[in-house]
């Protein structure tokens, strides 16, 4: 009894199915593969995982480089702020915080959106917003807006560096005219920290809190002994805030304080602070 002739093409049927799958534009079921394609002149890498989803990652090209620009600019502005923080009250940095926070958040989103395309299933219709490799027009506006926010943050930081408030330590020394007089010594401005105005906060208090208070009857006369500063003299209450115009005087100044109060009343300097700023 003769045996049937062996099949010379055992995989013909599987090969036919694979060829049909390839002609249909997708790999056979269960196949894990990757390939590349070109959309609109852009090279795009496509990763297929079974029949579930297709991840399309745009290769590094002009659009990818542009997507990173806002992020690099935001990082540069933030780094500049960290390396040369001007100091002073935190309230004057409000616009910087708002601009750099919004700019950095949008820059991260912009970089991710610019370097990847949509996640879709094989066979699904292509998104109408843009072809792979070509970001939508809205994305370009987002790139520009993000960079503008970073530049606004840099502008706000530069303005604080040039004109912002700078705390200055003021030394209190005994006066030359006996009890009830003091000298307030303002040090020279540090390089790059010169301002044209000084805000002085002065608070006098009772020397002995166990005695009846007489501070409500107390005033003080402030006399500037450094030329070029106005006003040169000022009468103020026991708790006061005075502004002096420094003009071109950046080498420090001295202020004489003389107290006028009721007989037998003794006071002391409870607080003195200064802030340099520009107008």
Describe the 3D structure.
The chain has 279 residues and is α+β, with helices and mostly antiparallel strands. It has helices at residues 12-23, 62-83, 94-115, 137-163; strands spanning 32-39, 42-49, 53-58, 116-120, 166-168, 171-174, 181-186, 197-206, 219-224, 233-237, 239-245, 253-260, 267-277. It has a 5-stranded antiparallel beta sheet, with no helix packed on it. Strands 1-2-3-4 form a 4-stranded antiparallel beta sheet. Strands 5-13-8-11 form a 4-stranded antiparallel beta sheet, with no helix packed on it. β1 and β2 (42-49) form a beta hairpin. It is elongated. The N and C termini lie far apart (114 Å).
General form: elongated
Question: Radius of gyration, rounded?
Answer: 37 Å
Mean pLDDT rating: 76
Q: Strand order across the biggest sheet?
A: 6-7-12-9-10
Low-confidence stretches: 14-51, 53-60, 117-122, 126-133
**Beta strand count:** 13
User: What composes the largest sheet?
Assistant: 5 strands, antiparallel
Beta-strand proportion: 25-35%
What class would the helix/strand composition place it in? Answer: alpha+beta
Count of helical segments? 4
């Amino acid at each position: 009894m003769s045996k049937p002739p062996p099949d010379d093409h055992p995989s013909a049927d599987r090969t036919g199915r694979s060829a049909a799958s390839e002609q249909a534009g997708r790999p056979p079921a269960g196949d894990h593969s990757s390939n590349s394609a070109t959309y609109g002149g852009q090279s795009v890498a496509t990763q297929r995982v079974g029949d579930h989803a297709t991840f399309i990652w745009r290769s590094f090209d002009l659009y990818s480089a542009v997507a990173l620009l806002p992020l690099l600019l935001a990082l540069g502005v933030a780094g500049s702020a960290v390396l040369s923080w001007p100091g002073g009250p935190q309230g004057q940095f409000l616009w910087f915080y708002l601009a750099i926070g919004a700019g950095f958040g949008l820059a991260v989103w912009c970089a991710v959106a610019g370097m990847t395309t949509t996640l879709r299933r094989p066979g699904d219709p292509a998104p109408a917003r843009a072809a792979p490799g070509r970001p939508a027009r809205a994305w370009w506006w987002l790139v520009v807006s993000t960079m503008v926010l970073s530049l606004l943050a840099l502008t706000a930081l530069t303005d604080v560096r040039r004109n912002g408030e700078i705390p200055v330590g003021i030394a209190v020394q005994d006066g030359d005219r006996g009890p009830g007089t003091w000298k307030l010594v303002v040090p020279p401005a540090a390089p790059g920290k010169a301002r044209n105005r000084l805000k002085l906060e002065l608070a006098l208090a009772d020397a002995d809190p166990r005695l009846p208070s007489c501070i409500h009857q107390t005033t003080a006369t402030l006399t500037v002994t450094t030329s070029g500063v106005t006003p040169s003299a000022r009468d103020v209450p026991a708790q006061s805030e005075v502004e002096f115009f420094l003009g071109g005087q950046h080498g420090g100044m001295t202020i004489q304080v003389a107290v006028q109060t009721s007989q037998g009343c003794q006071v002391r300097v409870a607080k003195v602070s200064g802030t340099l700023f520009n107008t």
